[in-house]
Amino acid sequence: MAYKEWGDPKNPRVLVCVHGVTRVSDDFDNMATALCDRYRVVCPDVVGRGRSDRLQNPQHYQVPQYVSDMVTLLARLDAESVHWFGTSMGGLIGMGLASLKDSPVRKLVLNDVGPALNPAALARIGDYVGKDVRFATFDEAARYIRDISLPFGPHSEEEWRKLAADALKQDSDGKWILHYDPGLAVPIKATTPEMMQHAEAMLWMAYDAISCPTLLVRGAQSDLLTPEVAHAMTARGPKARLVEIPGVGHAPTFLREDQIAIVREFLLQ
């Protein structure tokens, strides 16, 4: 598993930032730069994404595997305790880790994700995950990334190009392709309604077992994390503090200072 690191490697204050299902560690460049004076910031590429290796069996692209990988990463970092920021899938991994007995997670930020996820939004995301898309030019590929990422909310042209550049790479033929294993789609497409119900029940059990201070950030127009689920999360388990970001769906990118400030205030208060 590859990871990027900022700040003093001997700093005992460690912040781990984990991306969404088709994104990469580079998503957190701005946040890490803003917080590395106070933290050792570590941003991994979850297996199958970015610079990390791919799994031989794509059925293992699931949260329990990712939690196990993160336990190994924390051991490598020699981190006794961490603060955790997780976007979407990264938040589910954080929930799993924070729910463990004697968890090293001391503060948890969940970015637009909870134990119950809207099936329509999952279907929207599942529709593009794993598609074998190839583009002749970076500009064509960047337009595609922008189109599927419109729920991220308004961004400048420079910000959109960074979001695209982070998620793309060139293959041996010079074509621009997505920077993740298309096999990620295998377990998603194999999920049945019964499996979803079981997963939701397990995630609520994990959430209710969390005891550390928790911040829940929701894009006010999110189709993945409904207002009802978000408010339920403020009343049970760690009773998360809820902040909604107007004009944004799933999920806030935290490229901008006003969004980063929300996390800084919670983590450092």
The H/E string reads EEHEHEHEHHHEEHHEHEH
Number of strands: 9
| SS field, number of helical segments | 10
Strand proportion: 15-25%
In spatial order, strands of the major sheet run 1-3-2-4-5-8-9
Look at the helices and sheets and give the structural class: alpha/beta
Helix proportion range: 25-40%
Tell me which CATH architecture of the largest domain applies here. Answer: 3-Layer(aba) Sandwich
Annotated CATH topology of the largest domain: Rossmann fold
Kindly report the average pLDDT value. Answer: 96
Uncertain ranges? none
Radius of gyration: 17 Å
Q: In total, how many domains does the architecture comprise? A: 2
Indicate the overall shape: globular
Can you tell me the CATH class of the largest domain? Alpha Beta
Biggest sheet layout? 7 strands, mixed
Within CATH, the superfamily of the largest domain carries the name Alpha/Beta hydrolase fold, catalytic domain
Termini separation: 32 Å
Quick recap of the structure?
This protein has 269 residues and is α/β, with parallel strands linked by helices. It has helices spanning 29-35, 63-77, 89-98, 119-128, 138-148, 157-167, 185-189, 193-208, 227-233, 257-268, and strands at 3-6, 14-18, 40-44, 82-87, 105-111, 168-170, 176-178, 214-219, 241-245.
